[in-house]
Amino acid sequence: MTSRADEPEPEPTTVAALDEPVTVSLDIRLASDRRMHVAATTNLPEGTKVQLRVVREASNVRWQSRTEVREGSVTAGPYGPGSGLPDGYYRIELVTAPADVQPAEVKARIGPSGEHLDGPLVATSEHGLGKIIKASQRFLVGQEVRRTLDDVEVQQSP
Hints:
elongated; about 5% helix; 8 strands
């Protein structure tokens, strides 16, 4: 019979720091009910907590959900009212949660304050909690919104 003292202690596992620029590719799909579904592919670590937002530019109305990276992707939706999204421009945003609220495995890869995050998508957290990732894309639903509904004739001065 062997005692526990004779057994070797397990080696602590070390996690490699994220050593490449972060990439995020957003893909938007408008369903037949005119509600938006968002998918993203990314090289962020598995389990990274993110927030996806859809913002209507004309009114600043927003829909959002929290989710996490699974197998290099993120999906969320549907976004919009039950009647569907009205025509116009929308901004789709993916923002990571600060490092201090990420799971331990993610924090080990990105650093305690996100210092291992690199690339053009890196931003500083609004609350001074280190570096985060912000990716956004503009999307048009329907046709270009008209600036006026009046029947006007534009005249040029001589």
